[in-house]
Amino acid sequence: MSLLQQDSQELDDAARGEEFTKGSSHVVVATIAAAVLVTVIIAAYVIAGQKPPAATGQVVSVWAWPHHAESAGFDASGAQVAKESFDQMLVFADVKLHNQSKMPLFLNSIAANVTLPEGIDTSYAATPSEYDRIFMAYGNVPVPHGPALAANATIQPGQTIEGTIVASFRMDKQQWDARKALDFTFGIQYQPSLKLTPHATVIDY
After folding, report:
1. What is the per-residue pLDDT across 171-202, written as a single tens digit (0 to 9) for each?
2. Same-domain pairing of 43 and 131
């Protein structure tokens, strides 16, 4: 084999190596493109599968009223028992709830949650009759006496309801002032619970 033939063979091998490298780069580009396409398809599927929440809402106003209470001095059967005195915070909230689904929504519970340094304290909202009874029993309640929001209310499609709830916490004003957070949870039948945090400043008395 002549020197010329050897050089020609080396050139052919180099050319084949370059072609192999080019082919490899095409494979890498195609793999990346396929991966990007699959990611886009998965993201589109997830986004399309996400549904907006059935209910939305807003905590319009919150009032907190400290009250020193004393038990009646008799039990449920009418027997006399020792009276018990305690401090409580009555937390009132004016709330709006909106049904943005195509089906009626059925509330089944309303709760207020106070986050304290030692943990979360939860109190369920009073019934409308208990709510009204508070204003009858304590004539000095400084909170506006608006219509009550029932924990078993039904919200029709597209409807917005508004009402006031009240929850009672066994704590004094100093403990209340040490809270880290306050929010409200609305249980809805067959739907995830709706959690609302007030953005307005709590009116303390």
Report:
1. 999 999 999 999 999 999 999 999 999 999 99
2. no
Residue 82 has a pLDDT of 81
User: Do residue 122 and residue 146 come from a single domain?
Assistant: yes
The two beta strands, 55-70 and 203-204, are parallel
Domain closes at, from 35, 50, 65: 50
Predicted confidence (pLDDT) at residue 35 exceeds the cutoff of 90: no
Residues 88 and 60 in one domain: yes
Looking at the structure, tell me whether residues 112 and 20 fall in a common domain.
no
100 is written with which tokens? 């943005």
How many separate domains does the chain show?
A: 2
